[in-house]
Design goal:
There is one protein chain. This protein has 313 residues and is of the alpha+beta class. It is globular, with a radius of gyration of 19 Å. Bound molecules: adenosine-5'-diphosphate and ligand LJ64HWYM. Its EC number is 2.7.1.39.
Amino acid sequence: MKKIKIKVPATVANLVCGFDILGMAIHEPYDEMELKLLDSPEIIIRHEDHFGLPENPSQNVAGVVLQNIQQHLKLTKGFEVTIRKHIKPGSGLGSSAASAAGAAFGANVLLGNILSNEELVHFAMFGEELASGVRHADNIAPCIYGGITLVKSSSPIDIIPLSTPNLFVAAVHPQVEVKTSDARQILKKNILLKDAVEQWGNIAGLVAGILKNDIPLIGRSLNDVLIEPIRSILIPKFDEIKMKSLEAGALGGGISGSGPSIFMLAETKETAERITQLMKSVYDEIEIESFVYISKINPAGIEIVEEINDENQ
Ligand SMILES: Nc1ncnc2c1ncn2[C@@H]1O[C@H](COP(=O)(O)OP(=O)(O)O)[C@@H](O)[C@H]1O
Ligand SMILES: N[C@@H](CCOP(=O)(O)O)C(=O)O
C-alpha cells in the first residue's frame, strides 16, 4: 500500500496590489490530507470535517484535479483521499487551492514524483476553475513552491518564487462568507490607464522590496487602487480595521484573496498580537464571530507528514 499524509497551508493571494499574480503561503491555518494509491481506477473523496463539502469527485476540487491527472497519464490506478479541512471554504485563505494543490502534490508523490512543479500547478488549476470559474494560480503556486510567488503567466505557466521576508502575518476571518466567484463578478472589466500606472508601481515596488528585503519599501507598496475599493464593501468594518492596524504598527495589508479575511504584515510578534487583538475586538463590538491567526510566511508550502510504501499491505 502506498499512502501519504500531508499538511497543506493556507495562502494569502494578491498581496494587496498583485491581483491574480502574487501570493504567499502561511503556517496557520492548514488542512490535513491523506492520499492512498488504489489498484482500481476509482477516485474516492472523504471529508472528516464539518463544512458539508461535496464528496462526489466531479464536484470536489481535489477530485477534479485527480481526474485530470488520471486522464492525462492514462492511469489504471485510482486514489482515495481523506481531507480534514481547517481552512474554511469561502474564507479568502485559499481553502479550495489547498485541496487542489494538496491533491496534485500527494498524487505526484504516490506516483514517484513524475510531474514537475509547473505540471502540478497546471493540474491544480482545474480545481480553482471548479471553485471560482477561473484558472488562477496565485494561491496554488505558493502552496506548491512555498514562500511568496509571482505568477508571471498562468498560460503558459511561468512561476517565479521570490524570497521569504522574516515578517509576521496577522489575519482575521470574520464569519461572513464571500465566494471567490461572487467577489470576481463585481470587479470592473476595464480600468483607467492612470490607475494601472499606479498599480504597476506598487507591484514592481513590492516585488523589489521582497527581493531586496527592503521592509519599508514592502510597506509603502501594499496599496491597491483597483480591487480593494470595490471588494472592501463586502467586508464589514474593513476600513476601520485597516486604519487601526496601521496605527498599531502594521507595515501594511488588506483583503486576503477575495476576502472576507483581512491580513496585515508586521515586523514583530508583539505588533502582530496587538493587531489580532484589535481585529477581534472590532468584530466583537458588532457581534460578528471572528477567528484570528498569527503566523509567519511559510517558506516550505506543502509538507509531508508521513509516507508509507508497504508492498505487503
Ligand atoms: N475540497 C474543497 N475545499 C474547499 N472548497 C471546495 C472543495 N471542493 C469544492 N469546493 C467549493 O469551492 C468553493 C470555495 O472556494 P472559494 O470560494 O474559492 O473559497 P476560498 O476563498 O476559501 O478558496 C465552495 O463553493 C466549495 O463548495
Ligand atoms: N486572485 C484571486 C484569489 C482568490 O483567493 P481566495 O483565497 O479568495 O480563493 C481573487 O482575488 O479572486
